[in-house]
Automatic annotation (TrEMBL):
It comes from Electrophorus electricus (Electric eel). GO terms for molecular function: trace-amine receptor activity. PROSITE patterns: G_PROTEIN_RECEP_F1_1, G_PROTEIN_RECEP_F1_2. It is found in: Cell membrane. PANTHER family: HISTAMINE RECEPTOR-RELATED G-PROTEIN COUPLED RECEPTOR, TRACE AMINE ASSOCIATED RECEPTOR 19P-RELATED. One of its GO terms (cellular component) is plasma membrane. It is a multi-pass membrane protein. Gene3D superfamilies: Rhodopsin 7-helix transmembrane proteins (1.20.1070.10). SUPFAM superfamilies: Family A G protein-coupled receptor-like. It holds the Pfam family 7tm_1. Belongs to the G-protein coupled receptor 1 family. This is G-protein coupled receptors family 1 profile domain-containing protein. InterPro entries: GPCR_Rhodpsn, GPCR_Rhodpsn_7TM, TAAR, TAAR_fam. Keywords: Cell membrane, Disulfide bond, G-protein coupled receptor, Glycoprotein, Membrane, Receptor, Transducer, Transmembrane, Transmembrane helix.
């Protein structure tokens, strides 16, 4: 038995699956897990249906929102059920093949979700900094090409990460556990590529958006003061504060969900502790929060929900309904 076999056996012995007992707490955890999965899958599915169905929503920015919704929906369907089952079952019950699939898909869709948010930040910066050039150069087809390239690049990256990390060294498939242990070098690479780079872009471009929006609001306020008096100035200042508040929520919630997990995963060797599981859940719950942050702030999404649930979406020419008026 080589060293890795000893270490793997130690993991299997240390994290043996305890006997499960049906208790009120167990039932409550099952209900919470089911609710989280349904909210994530259904919330993002509503965004997917809305953007795909209504032609008025076929814009470059909405294509990025669609890509984000697809990645977050995949998190809700293929990642969260397996991970949340650990809260109720306290072990891995799905076998080694599903374990390998779970590790790959969880790495992939999580990184896709993060980079989608970063692309939205870049898109908003160029749209507000140079709107005329943005309208001329950025089209739906161009954005779709960028999105497809991003998906392909991140799939290749995550496949290479697991391959070069070595399944025999990194993936521990005990009869009762499914663990991934990255080598130090790959852990650092993953931290930089999946967290530092996109988060730096998000902070940078949203900060630039905030500065530009503030300048625009100041210019509009000065024009209103000269032409229409103090009422419009107050309205402009109110809009400025609202924009700043929404921007703060976007950045704060996103970083609050991601930062603790990546710091803990990088600095700690404990890969199967309750604290680690809680941070992973927080990471995945960001996919539940994204529809609320990036869609519910838009009035068109509320109109789309009404049309979908009232079954008007099945009427003739429903794709041409004006949802942005």
């Amino acid at each position: 038995m080589n060293l890795m076999e000893v270490n793997q056996t130690d993991h299997c012995l240390q994290f043996s699956c305890p006997e499960r007992s049906v208790s009120p707490l167990y039932v409550f955890l099952c209900l919470c897990a089911a609710a989280a999965v349904l909210i994530t899958a259904c919330g993002n599915m509503l965004i997917i249906i809305s953007v795909c169905h209504f032609k008025q929503l076929h814009t470059p920015t909405n294509m990025l929102i669609l890509s984000l919704a697809v990645s977050d929906c995949l998190v809700g369907v293929f990642v969260m059920p397996f991970h949340l089952s650990r809260l109720t079952e306290s072990c891995w019950i799905f076998g080694s093949n599903i374990c390998l699939f779970f590790v790959l898909i969880s790495f992939f869709v999580t990184s896709i979700s993060i980079y989608n948010v970063a692309l939205i930040a870049v898109d908003r910066y160029f749209a507000i900094s140079n709107p005329f050039l943005y309208i001329e150069k950025v089209s739906v087809s161009n954005i779709c090409i960028v999105i497809l390239a991003m998906w392909f690049l991140l799939l290749s990256y995550n496949s290479a990460l697991l391959y070069f990390n070595g399944n025999s060294r990194g993936l521990i498939m005990c009869p009762e556990q499914c663990l991934i242990v990255l080598k130090e070098i790959w852990s650092l690479v993953d931290l930089v590529f999946v967290f530092v780079v996109p988060c730096s872009a998000i902070i940078l471009f949203y900060a630039l958006v905030f500065v530009i929006a503030k300048k625009h609001a100041t210019a509009i306020r000065e024009i209103n003061v000269q032409s229409k008096g103090s009422k419009n100035m107050a309205d402009s200042m109110k809009s400025e504060r609202k924009a700043a508040k929404v921007l703060s929520i976007l950045v704060a919630v996103f970083l609050a969900c991601l930062f603790p997990y990546f710091v803990y995963a990088t600095l700690s060797n404990a890969i199967e502790t309750q604290s680690f599981h809680n941070l992973v859940i927080l990471l995945y719950l960001n996919s539940s929060i994204n529809p609320m942050i990036y869609a519910l702030f838009y009035p068109w999404f509320r109109r789309c929900i009404k049309i979908i649930f009232s079954l008007q979406i099945f009427t003739t020419d429903s794709a041409l309904i004006n949802v942005q008026s």
